[in-house]
Design brief:
Elements (H helix, E strand, L loop, with lengths): L5 H5 L4 H11 L4 H8 L18 H14 L4 E2 L12 H8 L2 H4 L11 H18 L3 E2 L6 H15 L5 E5 L4 H12 L4 E5 L2 H7 L2 E8 L9 H13 L3 E6 L10 H4 L3 E5 L15 E5 L12 E6 L4 E5 L6 H4 L12 H39 L3 E2 L7 E5 L4 H10 L2 E2 L1 E4 L2 E5 L6 H10 L33 H13 L21 H4 L5 H4 L11 H18 L3 E3 L5 H18 L7 E5 L4 H9 L3 E5 L9 H10 L4 E7 L11 H10 L3 E5 L19 E3 L20 E3 L36 H11 L3 H19 L18 E4 L1 H7 L3 H10 L6 E2 L6 E4 L7 H22 L17 H4 L10 H5 L24 E2 H6 L15
Parallel strand pairs: 1-13, 3-4, 3-5, 5-6, 6-7, 17-18, 17-19, 19-20, 20-21
Antiparallel strand pairs: 2-8, 7-8, 9-10, 9-26, 11-12, 12-15, 14-15, 16-22, 21-22, 23-25, 24-25
Helix pairs in contact: 2-26, 3-26, 4-20, 4-25, 5-14, 5-17, 7-14, 7-17, 8-9, 10-11, 14-16, 20-25, 21-22, 26-29
The structure holds pyridoxal-5'-phosphate (PLP).
Length: 951
């Protein structure tokens, strides 16, 4: 007997439900549905070449064995990654809590107040510590943050093409910046003498790393001089700064930096073999509208209650496309939440105490090695010392390794020792002994900078939750304000909000995976090496490509990596004039933004009335640009949720003109086991492991966006300056800070694929079945915008609300907000077509939950009709007033022309959203939010504490 196969746990509808759904579609079997929906010419004929599905227990045993092959020891390597202690209340309450990790990006702010509050806290923390006016709500890592900052400076300073970079910059930051510069006509000049560099070059920006990668710190006088010289020359100053050091040292904003960037990893986020970690960016006043990535701001709701929401959303790549400030979409929300929670829990005094202890321990080590006759490379440092050890560096590092401590061999003559929060007295004593020294109480060295004089983290949020009970309840209170997958369906087209299996989640906390530094010797990362290899093989088997790189840490970064590979490929053949990138009008905004970053010229291809790529326009554009054609980027199935029949012809047409074909793999959930982009004509794709392969969305990140290619593009996949084995020999493309990007969450996708094996196909088939079932049921009242030639959609469908809006005045927004009253997260709004909703149920939602959604949508259609017929006024009805808060429906006055019960329990069931798969009535913390008010009155750090009193 035994437990049922995992696939039965993963799929929402069971066999009987599937039969019922097929009946509604009037189709005999799943096979018949798929035969009708998926064009025969691209269908796989053989089963997926994956091992048979494993049980949860077996997968976890395998991953535990792999984790045990890694040797985390005590990581004292530094270089942007530092030992830290994740407070258990935060690990359990956030990182391991589905209420936090299964949330979606907070585009629907009314149901996202908890994570928006924590992100605002993150922004406040970063702004305070850097001494700058406004911080964004996370970037992908420190290296990409440096590159984004250089991009901001370039747009601000429209002269010169040189960026001057500190010789002490982290090697991975330099490499990522150089990769971005390749396609942007930017020259990166690296020098230790930034002041004279500024005299020699007409630079638009200067990047200062503080502390430098060798641990040394410049004096504030020198930093001030660099900033003054830069400003004299019209250049901007970017500080890549360690946030923890800034609890002790003068803030970049105080010595003249315009922008500060870095990592928040050492604020309680595990090393994770390089990621995921939240990068940060902050800018001085007046530059907030240039910030790349997302920005949380304060606004107010319909009832005047202060409320949080994403500010300046018009800047998103969706709207600005190739003119966007950045291609960033998925960022690192869960890790930003973790870092902010760490600051909330420790408070300013706690953070300062941690920093002081680290600095003191570094000084004690310095004194010990000096007493033993060694010299330091710098007398000024915070946490990292360089020890000169003529010819002995390798031996010392090897000795430390046998005692379980990872040091850094900087050169044959220099050892780097970086102290983290986790270093114990025994670790420090062992390190001293490795140098033949004895650790004592004496200290040597100093920061060389005055103590920080300005206060930080003064807001009450950093002082109110300092006991574990208080913190536990605060985390719970915030999570309770949010609607995540642990409450009900999040039917977001293009985003694939499927189950994130607990069995796949648990292994990321195994110490062998969580605590490994990305730059340990290969022999100490054998578990990760095997995991990465196996996952790459799985992805090759699913996609039909030849090679995969797991380095890109979001879909957007996979796009950039893929396009840079195409660019390098053309150049390797002497065809550097191929710079045109064809992109269909319906494409996701990141496509165009990534193409612009890769130095390509975007040419838009029209959409035909049936939603497919207009074949005549495509032929015309290919003919017109044949000589310069670099690549076409298509999404398959299309963003319209349809399997286009002639995709293979399209690939051939582009190939004949000498171009490459990029298939955006965000919709791979419709293809697993059914068709393979790598076989039906594409050359390159990115995948979204945080969509198709069960990595949770985290409220807007982390993600993994692997790039998959056919053989001819494999030499151009990403590499890494510190870990060359991470990519092909001689690779010029470095996309992310860490060699394997967000390595720490790869166990999730590996486990997911291992748990399903060839049944991935059943997952895709069920996703297609569920989408078609919803389309059919909803078509009773709403037109379904596009279907394939067979009349079926793929794994998602576009529900056209425009006729209803025209007839009743009820908008997409009203429907989305009323769905909250019903206990649903709204579908994707107005993408790819304005005035519509794109619904993707995924394979994980039960038939009962699908039916509950249909009931809600039909009830909404009735309510809209009632508005049109005059039963309720256009400006006072359950739709325009949605969502309804508990405070409003239980208030002492109620003056609306519909009853309270209808406001709160629109489906008629007083228990609200109760049904299989969904729990209890969900009330949003705030009513509908006024977006324009917040953009007019931009506030992007924690408001006075009264604002929190809303619930
Ligand atoms: C989600 C998505 C992307 C971007 O992926 P991120 O991981 O958010 O950067 C690109 N294209 C499509 C079609 C998507 O749905």
């Amino acid at each position: 007997m035994g437990a049922p196969a995992f696939v039965q746990r993963h799929l929402g509808p069971d066999a009987a439900d599937r039969a019922r759904m097929l009946q509604v579609l009037d189709v005999g079997s799943l096979e018949e549905l798929v035969d009708a929906a998926v064009p025969a010419e691209i269908r796989m004929t053989e089963p997926l070449a994956l091992p048979a599905a494993l049980s949860e227990d077996a997968v976890q045993a395998e991953l535990a064995a792999l984790a045990a092959l890694n040797v985390p020891g005590r990581a004292m390597i530094g270089l942007g990654y530092h030992g830290t202690l994740t407070p258990p209340v935060i690990r359990r309450g956030v990182l391991e809590n589905p209420a936090w990790y299964t949330a979606y990006t907070p585009y629907q702010p009314e149901i996202s107040q908890g994570r928006l509050e924590m992100l605002l806290t993150f922004q406040t923390m970063v702004a305070d510590l850097t001494g700058l006016a406004t911080a964004g709500s996370s970037l992908l890592d420190e290296a990409t943050a440096v590159a984004e900052a250089v991009g901001v400076a370039r747009r601000q300073v429209r002269k010169g093409s040189v960026v001057l970079v500190d010789g002490g910059i982290l090697p991975q930051s330099l490499a990522v910046l150089q990769t971005r510069a390749l396609a942007q006509d930017i020259t990166v000049v690296s020098t230790d003498d930034l002041v004279s560099g500024l005299q020699r070059h007409e630079a638009f920006a200067v990047v200062v790393q503080t502390p430098a990668s060798d641990g040394s710190l410049r004096s504030v006088e020198e930093l001030t001089l660099i900033a003054a010289k830069a400003h004299e020359n019209g250049a901007q100053v970017i500080a890549a700064a360690d946030l923890l050091a800034l609890t002790l040292l003068p803030a970049p904003g105080e010595w003249g930096a315009d922008i500060a960037v870095g990592s928040t990893q050492r604020f309680g986020v595990p090393l994770f073999y390089g990621g995921p970690h939240a990068g940060y960016i902050a800018v001085r006043a007046g530059m907030e509208r240039q910030l790349p990535g997302r920005l949380v701001g304060v606004s107010q709701d319909r009832l005047g209650t202060p409320a949080f929401r994403l500010a300046l959303q018009t800047r998103e790549q969706h709207i600005r496309r190739e003119k966007a400030t950045s291609n960033i979409c998925t960022a690192q929300v869960l890790l930003a939440v973790t870092a902010a929670a760490y600051a909330v829990y420790h408070g300013p005094d706690g953070l300062r105490a941690i920093a002081e202890q680290i600095a003191r321990n570094a000084r004690r080590l310095a004194a010990a090695v000096i007493a033993a006759g060694f010299e330091l490379t710098s007398d000024t440092f915070f946490d990292t010392i360089g020890v000169r050890a003529e010819g002995d560096a390798a031996a010392i590092v090897a000795r430390a390794r046998t005692r379980g401590v990872h040091l850094r061999q900087v050169s044959p003559d220099t050892v780097g020792v970086s102290v983290g929060e986790d270093a114990t007295e025994a670790d420090l004593a062992a390190v001293a002994e490795d140098f033949g020294a004895t650790l004592g109480a004496e200290e040597a060295g100093a920061t060389g900078q005055p103590e920080r004089a300005t206060a930080y983290l003064t807001h009450p949020v950093f002082h109110s939750y300092r006991s574990e009970t208080a913190m536990m309840r605060y985390l719970r209170a915030l999570a309770d304000r949010d609607f995540a997958l642990d409450r009900g369906m999040i039917p977001l087209g293009s985003c694939t909000m499927k189950l994130n299996p607990a069995a796949a989640m648990e292994p990321i906390s195994y110490p062998g995976f969580a605590n490994l530094h990305p730059f340990v010797p290969a022999a100490d990362a054998r578990g990760y090496a095997a995991l990465i290899h196996r996952l790459e093989e799985q992805l090759v088997a699913v996609t039909g490509y030849d090679r995969v790189s797991l380095q890109p840490n979001a879909g957007s970064q996979g796009e950039f990596a893929g396009l840079m590979a195409v660019r390098a490929y053309h150049r390797s053949r002497g065809e550097q004039h191929r710079t045109v990138c064809l992109i269909p009008a319906s494409a996701h905004g990141t496509n165009a933004a990534s193409a612009a970053m890769a130095g390509m010229d975007v040419v838009v291809v029209k959409t035909a009335p049936d939603g497919s790529i207009d074949p005549d326009d495509l032929a015309a554009k290919v003919a017109r640009h044949a000589d310069e054609l670099a690549v076409i980027m298509i999404t398959y199935p299309s963003t319209h949720g349809v399997y286009e029949a002639r995709v293979a012809d399209l690939c051939a047409l582009v190939h004949d003109a000498g171009g490459q074909v990029y298939v955006d793999g965000a919709n791979l959930n419709a293809l697993m086991g059914l068709a393979q982009p790598g076989r039906f004509g594409a050359d390159v794709s990115h995948l979204n492991l945080h969509k198709t392969f069960a990595i949770p969305h985290g409220g807007g990140g982390p993600g993994v966006g692997p790039v998959a290619v056919r053989d001819h593009l494999a030499p151009f996949l990403p590499g890494h300056p510190v870990v060359p084995d991470a990519g092909p020999a001689g690779s010029a493309a470095v996309i992310a800070a860490a060699p394997w990007g967000s390595a720490g969450i790869l166990p999730i996708s590996y486990a997911f694929i291992a748990l399903l094996g060839p049944d991935l196909r059943l997952a895709s088939e069920t996703a297609v079945l569920s989408a078609n079932y919803l389309a059919r049921r909803l078509s009773e009242r709403y037109p379904i915008l596009y279907t394939g030639e067979s009349g079926f959609v793929a794994h998602e469908c576009i529900v056209d609300l425009r006729p209803m809006t025209k007839a009743t005045g009820i908008t997409v927004d009203d429907v989305a907000k009323r769905l909250i009253d019903h206990g649903f997260h709204a579908p994707t709004m107005s993408f790819p077509v304005a005035g519509t909703l794109m619904v993707e149920p995924t394979e994980s939602e039960s038939l009962a939950e699908l039916d509950r959604f249909v009931t809600a949508m039909l009830a909404i259609a009735d309510e809209a009709q009632a508005v049109a017929s005059g039963q309720w006024p256009a400006d006072d009805n359950p739709l325009v007033n949605a969502p309804h808060t508990l405070a409003e429906v239980s208030g002492d006055t109620w003056e609306h022309p519909y009853p309270r019960s209808l406001a709160a329990f629109p489906a008629g069931d007083v228990r609200g959203a109760v049904s299989a798969g969904a729990v209890e009535k969900y009330f949003p913390a705030v009513a509908r939010i006024d977006q324009a008010f917040g953009d007019r009155n931009l506030v992007c750090s924690c408001p006075p504490i009264e604002a929190y009193a809303s619930s």
